[in-house]
Design a protein that fits this description.
Helix content: under 10%
Strand order of the largest sheet: 2-4-3
Number of helices: 0
Largest sheet: 3 strands, antiparallel
Strand content: 35-45%
Number of strands: 5
Order of helices and strands: EEEEE
């Protein structure tokens, strides 16, 4: 059974309909954010090497992001309805 190892929530600034989760060392990301960002018409998640872009319905705002680390693939999250979801 999968066990939740760690969980952290933070407010993320969203600009121009999106934000990115990127390697902390910018030199490791061949295409650093926001280069080649797909924009408002993109899928919910767009993967790049060392980065993933997340699209938002709102242009400029702050979003609550909760990241979880599990010891193996977790069960499907059915605690609430999601507006959008994606996997890569």
């Amino acid at each position: 059974m999968a066990v939740l190892v760690r969980q952290q929530s933070m407010e993320i600034p969203v600009d121009f309909y999106g934000f990115s989760l990127q390697d902390g060392d910018d030199t490791q990301a061949p295409v650093p954010f926001p280069d080649e960002s797909p924009g408002a018409d993109a899928d919910f998640l767009t993967p790049f090497a060392q980065r993933v872009d997340v699209r938002s319905a709102g242009h400029t705002h702050r979003a609550l992001l909760t990241a979880e680390v599990w010891d193996e693939e977790p069960p499907a999250d059915r605690r609430e309805m999601w507006e959008a979801q994606g996997e890569h």
